[in-house]
Structure formats: C-alpha cells, structure tokens
Amino acid sequence: MKPVHWSLYVQRVKGDTTQAEVAQAAGIDQATISRWLRGGRPGAPERVAAFARAHRENTNVLEAFVAAEFLTPLEAQEGLPDGHPDGTSTQGSEGEQP
Q: Is the domain defined by 6-83 classed in CATH 1.10.287?
C-alpha cells in the first residue's frame, strides 16, 4: 500500500458522492467530511474505520489507516492474512486450504 495524504484519500474514496451522502453512510457528521476534505486530521480511528467500512467498494480499513497515518504501509501489509493485498485468505472457515 502506498501512503496517500488523508484529504486526497477521502476525495478519491468519496468520488462523485456528496458530502452529505458520505457522512450519512458512515454515520459521521458532514462537518467532519468537509474538514477532512480541506486537509484536517482524521481524528479517531473509529471514524476512519466507519468511513472505510461505509465505502467497501472503494477501499478497506487497512488502506484507510495507512492514509490516516495510524499504520505504515509495511504494518498494514504484515496484518493481511497470507499477505494478500485485499485482505482475503485462502483458508476455509476451519483453517483448511481449499
């Protein structure tokens, strides 16, 4: 994962969605989204995770934590099962290989 400045990350993930829609989907107030887009710090990890989870089609929590500088890209990569870039594992529910 390549580090990205938080406001650029939020803009990329947000895309054409309005600030109000983004805020509602993530359960965050619109003022927070506006502050993030203007270069404000990400704040609490819970908000960053809520933002990422609300936009799963465009991102994941580890990518958000790297953009927010809560994790380094290496720390995020090490935290992925089997080192898969998307966080998926090749193991079944019982820990068996498919």
A: no
